[in-house]
Amino acid sequence: DKLTGPKRLEFRPGDHATAEATGLLGLPNDTWTSTRRWFDRYLRGERNGIDTESPVQLKSRTDTGYEGYPDWKS
Predict the structure, then answer these.
(1) pLDDT tens figures, 35-70
(2) Structural domains of the chain, count
């Protein structure tokens, strides 16, 4: 709660770093697509809608979609 700037937390299935691997090869990848959207919005000022999505995103293991949550309390 001490950080006052925009925040986002994303959970995806997989082992450590496996969700990102295909993006390193230049293939479509949710992790890098989301990162690019975040940087475009908050570093370049582009209005791409990422700031209107729930700040916590959870990708289902059984579905292709994401579930959005307003927070993720520990």
Answers:
(1) 999 999 999 999 999 999 999 999 988 877 899 999
(2) 1
Q: Tell me if 12 sits within 8 A of 31, measured CB to CB.
A: yes
Instruction: Judge contact between 19 and 66, C-beta under 8 A.
Output: no
The stretch 15-24 carries a mean pLDDT of: 77
Which tokens in the block code for residue 26?
A: 């230049």
Give domain status of residue 1, yes or no.
Answer: no
- Could you tell me the two tokens for 47? 């209005």
Full domain range(s) for residue 22: 9-69
DSSP states of 52-64:
GS-SEEEE-SSSS
What is the structure's pLDDT at 27? 85
Q: 33, 27, 65, 73: which is closest to 50 by C-alpha?
A: 33
Does 4 reside within a domain?
A: no
